[in-house]
Records
---
Amino acid sequence: MLILSRKVDQKIKIGDDITLTIIEVRDGQVKIGVEAPKHVKVFRQEIFEAIQDENKAAATQTTPEQLQRLFFTKKN
């Protein structure tokens, strides 16, 4: 992990297309602006983890309609 110290209005570049800007530091909280191409998805860590959990749950759930198709589909 790279650890950097930055002041308000200073920037961090990630590759050619992503820029992080320190917007504000107050009461132990840092506000960061993210400039990235539209195709780059940017999430807070806790939101990213929630999305991953939902995707895993959706992949393992079987709906009643899916069960019905499994058991009542005509076979040749």
---
Amino acid sequence: MLEAKNVSIGYDAELVVKDLSFHVNKGEIFGILGPNGSGKTTLLKAISGLLPLQQGSITLHGKAIHAYRSKELAQQIAVLPQDSATAFTYHVEEVVGLGRYPYQKGLLGRETKQDQDIVIEALKKTDTLQFRNKPLQTLSGGERQRVLLARALAQEPEMLLLDEPTNHLDISHQMSLLNSLKQWSRTRELTVIAILHDLNMASLYCDRILLLDEGQMVELSTPRFIMEQKQLERVYHAPLRIKEHPEVPRPLITFVPEVPKSEHQSPLEALKIEATYHYLKVWSVIRWKTLSSAVLGAGFRWHQTFVNRHVDKEYCCDDPESEFSQYLAEQGIDARDVLGMMTAAMLEDVVISKESNDSFSLQVMITAGTSNAVDVSRAYEQKPRTEKIGTINTWVFIEGKLAEAAYAQALMTATEAKVKAMHDENIRDPHSNTLATGTSTDSVMIAASQTGEYLPYAGTITPIGAAIGKLVYEGTRLAIQKYQKRREA
């Protein structure tokens, strides 16, 4: 639809955009990213015909942009500029009506019924119909931005050029605008070229992205390949991390703030433990990044408070999360900040062990009950289990910086160590009489302070993995032995 070949653009003798070549497909949302001064707005002005090229060509449907008459080009391309400030003294509906000018004939072209219908529809699409009789200058910056977008939509263009379209908009209207653009690009084949500063919005909504730096193309590709950590850090000169969005297959970008060095003692040494008959509570002066299968706070989270709660063997609840939260509230503990587990094991039998070296410090806390032991390889043979709950809860605190891969490896290492401990204690599945691999309600947590030495791996071949394996194995065996002695007493 639109093609740029060897385009260079500048002001006076200074080139701002240098030798760019790319094409934009019909119905595509084409994003332009780059730091301030990279040439984004200059390029958009050239595409709209406002700036002459110093070199190369830009064609729309095979015809050079500068060869279009102004009204003819306005029927093809609508522009929403970056700055929503305007000198208009018109009412909102009149401003949006200006978008119909390219279709009016004669010097004093009159608005038709069709023009009026299109204006009303544009006002509805941008949630500005309620402002139709208000002077534009009385609106907020975000409201004016939506009105100017309505004016652009009223042009019924094939291509929409947007320079920071979410500027001044609140989150709700940002999402509404971008969702609408995505829908229109699919249903009406509206082509959108948008300059964006929000990397995550670009990742979520753009089909392809042109990444610029100092007027030159860094890369042109899909968001998955543009949003590459080292590339973005090099272009934006800022530390960041790339993760996966939790709901859609798109990259999620997070920037890393500079954190002052802590003057506190070791985070591991600063852990405070409160033990009662009903719960074991660990509180920290910092938040720990955790990966867990807990009842409360599961998955990847940051936590400062950790609770292992004792429940009766007859405990049964349809909504354990709500019940647990209510229980914590009664104890004066805010459940929103708690990583919480449950066990029927006696908390006074908890096993706590530590190990450290020059690279990391490690603390493991384990409670164990095995009345619901299960051999995972035979679990499919059994109907829903009805025996009393037991549960082995394993907490691993690591003073160090863990990569996400290391979390998964640490989880696997701890699980392997628990299974080996159960085998060596001859814990059996009561249904199959085979060696058990765990209990049906086990839970595990890997927590890292994200301070100190960087630990990219935590498999059994690594020092941290070997230490986790040793402490979890020994701790699980001892916790099981305590549990069995209590049962025999």
